[in-house]
Amino acid sequence: MITDENVELLLADLLEVYGYDFTDYSRASLKRRINRLYSLDKFPSFAEFRYHLRSDATYLKRFVEQITVNVTEMFRDPGFYKALREEVLPNLGTYPFIRIWLAGCSTGEEAYSMAILLQEANLFHKSLLYATDINPSVLEKAGKGIFPLSQMKQYSENYILSGGKKDFSSYYSANYDLAKFDEVLKTKMIFSTHNLVSDHSFNEFQLILCRNVLIYFDKDLQAKVFKLFDESLDNLGFLALGSKETLQFSPIASKFKKSGSEKIWRKIS
Fold it and tell me: Do 74 and 155 contact (CB within 8 A), yes or no?
């Protein structure tokens, strides 16, 4: 069994060796997930488990996949999506083509929410959504566009609070206990793995959403990721962060201006 002290040692290793900061994760959840992995992979001792993690970058990938908490929902923080509708999309509409990067997209709820917003703003036809995550298994789920039917009531409420005017159920078909989203929504999505810590910029975007990911990174790593976003963002493009994240004290803060009350910034230089 993995003890509380063992968990702290592993978290310190992840930060020291690989630059991953998971110290803000719920300890109970982390311990449960690490114990499950330890049991699954049948290590004879904690020392061997720890050595394997520190010395084998391939095993790191499996470890991160197993312990990453993928908590997300459609139109999460409806006020944020309302701000996108009212403040950001009208600006994006002036571009001949719109590229949007959803960094750390998890199981894809954010990508489908964004696609619906674009459809309702009549911008979907000239948009492309790049949805990336470090975890390939969640991307596989995201690509299917299938979510538990039991979550649709909450998603529908979020959608209405975000300014949605349609019947939310018109976007999916129900089959037993699952909701499958309209295939059309996927026609403008590209799902791919991307590591914010080590991978480079791969396009120029008008909007980047990276919400509730940076809270798991230390300040140096955050600065590195912000630099990546700056390099990837078109001048006058928008960067959207999670409710507990800020650009305020970052090295690129002077190049951005806060846009409205939500955690959305616009690149001004």
Answer: yes
What pLDDT is attached to residue 229? 97
pLDDT digits (tens, 9 = 90+) for 62-92: 888 787 766 689 999 999 999 999 999 999 9
Contact 63, 20 (CB under 8 A): no
CA distance 175 to 231: 43
CA nearest 83: which of 168, 163, 156? 163
Whether residue 257 contacts residue 266, with contact meaning beta carbons closer than 8 Å, is answered with yes
Q: In sequence order, what are the residues at sequence separation of 6 or more whose Cβ sits closer than 8 angstroms to the Cβ of residue 155?
A: 73, 74, 75, 109, 147, 168
123-160: b (≥16 Cβ within 10 Å) or e = bbeebebbbbbbbeebbebbbebbbeeeebeebbebbe
Pairing of strands 172-175, 127-133: unpaired
Nearest alpha carbon to residue 117 among 70, 154, 166, 174? 166
Compute the distance between CA of residue 108 and CA of residue 190 in angstroms, rounded to an integer. 11
**H or E stretch covering 132:** strand 127-133
**Which residues in the chain come in under a pLDDT of 50?**
none
Kind and range of the H or E element at 7? helix 4-13
Question: What DSSP character marks residue 216?
Answer: G
User: In angstroms, how far is CA 110 from the centroid of its own chain?
Assistant: 8
CA distance linking residue 17 with residue 22, whole number of Å: 13
Give the predicted TM-score (pTM) of the model: 0.80
CA dist 22 and 25 (Å) reads 6
Whole-angstrom distance, CA of residue 235 vs CA of residue 244: 25
